[in-house]
Amino acid sequence: MKPEVLRIEKEINADPIKIFRAWLNAEDFALWFLSGEGIEIESVIMDPRPGGKFIINMELDGKILPHEGEYITIDEPNKLVFTWRSHATDNKDTLVTITFEEIKDIISKSGKVGKQKTLVTLVHEELTSEIQVKMHNHGWTNILEGLDQWINSGK
Questions:
Q1: Of the candidates 121, 137, 139, 120, which has an alpha carbon nearest to the alpha carbon of residue 129?
Q2: What are the structural domains of the chain?
Q3: pLDDT at 28 (0 to 100)
């Protein structure tokens, strides 16, 4: 079966450095990394360096669902690449690449400059079925929405 690729984009009103760093601070990460209703973060352990590992223990209905991987690339504030393995990937490694692209301010005719924005693009590769794509599309979409809400709540 041909590996599937999922791509999700989200504009967030914040600078790329702030958004990038939210992915690598375990304490902050646990506050916004929520993939759907009823899912909580039980614990997060991170070693944010190339070759470092992470484990995110999500909790659903009293059951712990570990999500783990290894950082491959940490290029602040441009790109983050890591492996991703969980029950939803049949416990096989997949690959996630996240890029953070500053959206340049557009100045209106009145001279007003809009808020700083970043285009966050998440690409999840090596998924093996359409159901994996659908599950991860739902999860990553909620996660990026949670990141946006957390970043813009003044935290």
A1: 137
A2: 4-32+73-151 (3.30.530.20)
A3: 95
